[in-house]
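BUG-284 | component: ligand-complex export | severity: low

The export step for zinc ion jobs runs without errors, but we want the raw record kept on the ticket for reference. Input record follows.
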Amino acid sequence: MSSASITNALTIDVEDYFQVSAFSPFIPRDQWDNYECRVEKNVDCLLEMLEEHRTKATFFTLGWIAERYPQLIDRIVNSGHELASHGYGHERASDLSEVAFYADILRAKQILEDRSGSEILGYRAPSFSIGKNNMWAFDCLEKAGYQYSSSIYPIKHDHYGMPDAPRFSHQVCSGLIELPVTTARLFNRNWPASGGGYFRLLPYDFSHWLMKQVNLRDQQPVIFYLHPWEIDFEQPKVLGINLKAKFRHYINLHKTENRLRRLLKDFRWGRMDEIFLNANKKDN
Ligand SMILES: [Zn+2]
């Protein structure tokens, strides 16, 4: 398989700028309704870009967003994209008990299924919050009827990460696979190569090179992720946050849209379910 024939997975975590985990110490959840919501406009902009490039993607969406913007869900689904779950209210799996986590993933799944009329197969934990201390989360996901998770980031990071996890698709329960977001293996360690803050921080050519390594050397699809607020450089600034959170959130927001356009041109992209679940079926 040549790298040109590999279809990579493009994933969007549908949440707004005031819901990110780094801001949670500064913005209580019960204040969310007081913030100006910009997710609808930003997702619409992404949908337009994807349409221009005839590309389909997977949208890991919060139940909280789906309840408030049901028509946005319709637009995602009617444009041919995969709707998947990012939980209900962006609570880290690692902060919840098993019972509370199960309730959260089930609630989100039901809201998304009721609106879209289709089965929700995929889940991504907020802030990649599944790791070696809460592997029970996979049993909950299987029990709730999910078929895949994309919740592990095999890197070292202060907020998340499981550096010794397998880097690619692997079975975690009899009915569930984990699809970790992409890392590139260099100098005996895993480097983040899948979007988010690193895509804004690193020069585009370097991100591009890392992803190419995964297609060429590992012969594996990249799983790339982005948030709608990352293309919105005019978003209201959240006040009172610490310097690190500020740097990570606001760095190079004005460059993301162009970089994403280049990425859409330079690689071939598709939906998680079509890349990973259909391929699995063919193998069986
Ligand atoms: Zn998130």
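Assignee comment: Attached the raw record above. The chain has a mean pLDDT of 91.
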